[in-house]
TrEMBL record:
Keywords: DNA-binding, DNA-directed RNA polymerase, Nucleotidyltransferase, Sigma factor, Transcription, Transcription regulation, Transferase. Belongs to the sigma-54 factor family. Residues 125-316 form the RNA polymerase sigma factor 54 core-binding domain. Residues 331-488 form the RNA polymerase sigma factor 54 DNA-binding domain. The keyword Transcription applies. NCBIfam families: rpoN_sigma (TIGR02395). The keyword tRNA processing does not apply. GO terms for molecular function: DNA binding; DNA-binding transcription activator activity; nucleotidyltransferase activity; sigma factor activity. This is RNA polymerase sigma-54 factor.
Amino acid sequence: MSMGLQARMVQTQKLAPRMIQSMEILQLPMLALQERIEQEMNENPLLEQQETEPGSPEDGDLAPSADTRSEDEKELVVDDNGDNSDDFERLQNMVAELPSTFDDSFRRSAGRMQEEADRRHDLMANAQSRPESLNDFLLHQLAELDIDDDVERIAERIISTLDARDGGYLRTPLADLLPSDHTAENYEVAERALKVVQSLEPTGIAARSLSECLLMQLRPEFEHYEEMEKLISSHLEDLAANRLPQIQKATGYSIELIQTVRAELQILNPKPGAAFMETYVPNVTPDIILEQDENGEYKITLDDDRVPSLYISEYYRRRLQDRSCTEEEREYIKRKINSAQWLIESIEQRRSTLTKVAEAIVAHQKKFFDEGPEAIEPLKMQQIAEKVGVHVTTVSRAVNDKWMQTPRGIIPLHRLFVGGTQTDDGEDVAWDTIRLKLQELIDGEDKRDPLSDESLVKKLAEEGMTVARRTVTKYRKRMGIPSSRQRKDWSLAKK
């Protein structure tokens, strides 16, 4: 072993900061893009936005639009390396085109301040109120009861362990809620506390098993109360597996009676606490609008009216040529110009890329929009990337969390990318089409003798769709379709 200096040539690839920002902007959905622009405008005083409605007569007096700005302004890029004399010369030339009446003071207009106030008001008005949790609901009921303090303390501990996501079941043993040196008397208090909690609404809360949860919901006025109690206590697993003959043999009940009781059991709630589970409903704002013209052709437009038209502040343009501007101020303006120009160009690049990707997707999936989900065709991101002339990761970022408003509703862009297989004739067929065909076969099967997964494979093969049995099993489970044994109707099987 020896130590020494060695020279090596290594080729590495690094992403420039502006390229990273461009990719980040491309990946943002509409609402996130609006937030990003607002954040940038708060941090960068050189960024200004057009404050009047598009198309109003005053537009030309406030700010140059993307179409009317000079070519020099569009290409302005301040480089951190070099003296940037050409860039700043072009920037100073822009000042000559400004109106003679110009207010040197930098302040937000009344319109912009009112716009920001309205935005904050809308956010507050549309903010979702926090719903009452399961624990709060139970504690409010508990507070109204006249019970001993020691029972109430244990009841509160029990309630604290209940989780709405788990249906409100008590998964913690009572002994674990007591001190390690608890006595039999303490355990008796805990059992009394559990009875108190189980007496609260919703009925079935704090049950320790599914059977206990269902039994707590039974009422003597039910028509088949005794039969329901027996099936819950001893034959839940057989009911779930549709093993009705075994239940018939053990209980002496007829198949018809067992099926009637099973139907009545469905009114009971196996997860009483789930009603308090907070559900997240995303606020979907489409980035793309797909419309069909009178000739039947599809037209793509970006729904980016809420994205403001940005430009560099006129005040700071004038400030650059002011002799009183210090070197420190010039460096500050230089950095902010750089940041502002990168953001403007990234937004323009986002518009261009998203439009091209959307047009390529719609062109490939035209049958889907014309005929419906059964006509969707296999599509990979690599195909769109090759068609548009970009890297596949760019396509991935472009479609990520983006939605398209179409004649068939608002759909996520990634929904239009599907895998597939080939028929015996060599025709590509999407997995979604196979799933629809699978559902059709199961809906039309003889319930006395339902199709097994192997039989479904053969039926699909008759349609020219070669699919492995494990694939059929996987999609059947994803679709929530039970096995052939569970789909069998025993009352029809006897006929």
